[in-house]
Amino acid sequence: MKRYSKLLFPALLLFAAFHVTTAWAQKKYDEQKAEITKIKRAPEKYVYAEATCKTLEEAKDVAEEMFYEAVNEYVAELKKEKGKNDFVINDAKAIFNEISMPRGSNMQRVFLYAKKSDIIAMKNPVVLSKMNKEERNTEQPQPSESEPTPAPQTIVFPPAAKQLATIKTIAEANRTLKQMKASGTVIAYSKYSAVTNANEWYLIVYDAKGNVKAILTDGEKRYNVATGLVDSFSNYPQHVAFAVKIKK
Predict the structure, then answer these.
(1) pLDDT (tens digit, 9 = 90+) per residue, 97-141?
(2) Torsion angle, CA of 232/237/238/241, rounded to 10 degrees?
(3) DSSP element (H, E) containing 88
(4) Under a CB-based contact definition with an 8 Å cutoff, are residues 233 and 222 in contact?
(5) Is 56 exposed, middle or buried (0-12, 13-18, 19+ CB in 10 A)?
(6) pLDDT tens string 140-181
(7) pLDDT of residue 9
(8) Phi, psi (5° rounding) for residue 141?
(9) Bridge partners, residue 68, by sequence
(10) Where are the alpha helices (DSSP H) in the chain?
(11) Count of CB atoms within 10 A of residue 28's CB?
(12) Do residues 63 and 48 touch, judged by C-beta distance below 8 A?
């Protein structure tokens, strides 16, 4: 009997520890969900963005890009409403908060947010993103139905662009771009918000779940590599982009 008691006691301890850990994890999960809900219900107080991807790293990258987009949209509103020319967010990395949590059995969710009160007017600011939404919208708009659009077969895209057009997710894009850079077909790639002279870069446009929606050519007038038609990043609201410079 003593022998069984010695075996049973550690098992009971492990069982109790497991349930305590599970209960703690569930409590934390519920608290995080409640916090996200509270923030979403107060858009007058917060700027926020979220992404759900297969890995935490991918979700963070996508959410960060979308967070910058949300901040730039809010800044544009401030400029329009208050007539201010210069706005800056106080140290973006320091003021935005992150909530990371699992979603389903194999996905990761990242929610980023910041208080709008932390966005202030300043002189000579260092802007959050090198190209804000207003600048992006200066790209050539999509032609109206009355204007002729080139047939897909009249546009000749380089082999590297066609290879990019086969990509389905941003995770696949990361792997492919590493290979293309190693082979020399791609010169450089970066987050769209980090590049200057954006017209010199191809764009991989993707949504909050990391699904690639379009590959757009470089140039003032961009073309969709998949369709061969005129297209623009401004045609993809609530999306973000990865910039790629293809070897000519």
Answers:
(1) 899 988 888 899 999 998 888 766 444 344 444 333 333 344 444
(2) 10
(3) strand 87-89
(4) yes
(5) middle
(6) 444 444 444 444 445 789 999 999 999 999 889 989 999 999
(7) 53
(8) -70, 160
(9) none
(10) 2-40, 56-82, 92-95, 133-136, 159-164, 170-183
(11) 11
(12) no
Helix or strand or coil: residue 244?
strand
Helix (H, G, I), strand (E, B) or coil at 217: coil
Dmax (CA) of the chain: 91
What is residue 168's DSSP assignment?
-
Which residues is 114 bridged to in the sheet?
Answer: 47
What are the Cα distances from residue 183, in Å, to 120, 143, 177, 242? 45, 36, 10, 19
- Rounded to the nearest 5 degrees, what angle is found at the Cα of 28, between the Cα atoms of 23 and 33? 125
Report pTM: 0.57
**Tokens linked to 31:** 């608290």
State both tokens at 234.
């401004």
Cα separation, 181 vs 97, whole angstroms: 34
Give CA–CA dist 225/113, Å, rounded.
34
CA-nearest of 113, 109, 108 to 97 is 113
Rounded (10°) angle between helices 170-183 and 56-82: 100
